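Lab notebook, entry 264. We have the chain sequence and a SMILES string for zinc ion, and the next step in the workflow is to get a structural model of the bound complex before anyone spends time on docking refinements. Request logged below.

Task: model protein plus zinc ion, output structure tokens.
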Amino acid sequence: MDALYARFGTRLSRFALSLLGDQDAAQDAVQETFLAVWQSAGTYQGGSSVSTWLLGICRNKVRDQLRRRPPPTEPLNGAGGLVSPGSGEEAVELWACFRQMDEDDQELIQLVFHQGLSLQEVAEVLGIPVGTVKSRTFYARRRLRQLLRGGDSE
Amino acid sequence: MPCQEVQELLPWIANQTASPSERRQVFAHIAVCATCRRELVEVVALARRVESATEALPGPARAVDHLALLEEAGLPPLVAELVRGARSLVRQGVVVSLGLPWVAPLTVRV
Ligand SMILES: [Zn+2]
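Result returned:
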């Protein structure tokens, strides 16, 4: 467990934080992930990579956190406390736009561009067909690009 | 390969997980299509931007003692014994594998 955490803890934390925008919630999601891993010891099928398997669990825990939390009080276009000290204007702008996308799109962008998952791995984590991953990612990145250019929608 | 199909694959060209045959097809198309070439440049830039912004996020806020956490949650006694044993071996500098299915690809190292 410690080995798993040492290897994937930071990666999962950043994934959860990028989607939740709140460090406590992100930490809870990651802890619940490792707890679920423990409780389901033996359900790892070996078919997917360990990181894909963990991301699949973590993603569900993030969803639980999102469902649990009260409606946002901060303005939608804020970066949501996500920006760490020292991060530049580029990051601030990115997070502000990122927050305006819907949760499914945020998740796809993170899985592909930060976690670096293959098409098949994304499909596995999200439990949707490869073709759907392709088309949804196409629209998600279009949307993000549009937002970064200052447009409101496609 | 039509433009739409190429453009749908670009994120995986950017993150370098596309298959060799996908890469071949995409690059063959890009060699003759300026629109998709521009699109690739944009996707790569976007990928870098997302990656660096996410990497700038703080990691775990506090260290977590997973063994304590798990014991709190109630470990099956046999498993708890296994983990404790593994820990003490690790402390002694021995590399162990817990032999649990989900730990199989990993080894506990000091
Ligand atoms: Zn084209």
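Notes for the group: Residues 34-55 of chain B form the longest helix (22 residues). Worth checking against the assay data. The two ends of chain B are 50 Å apart (CA to CA).
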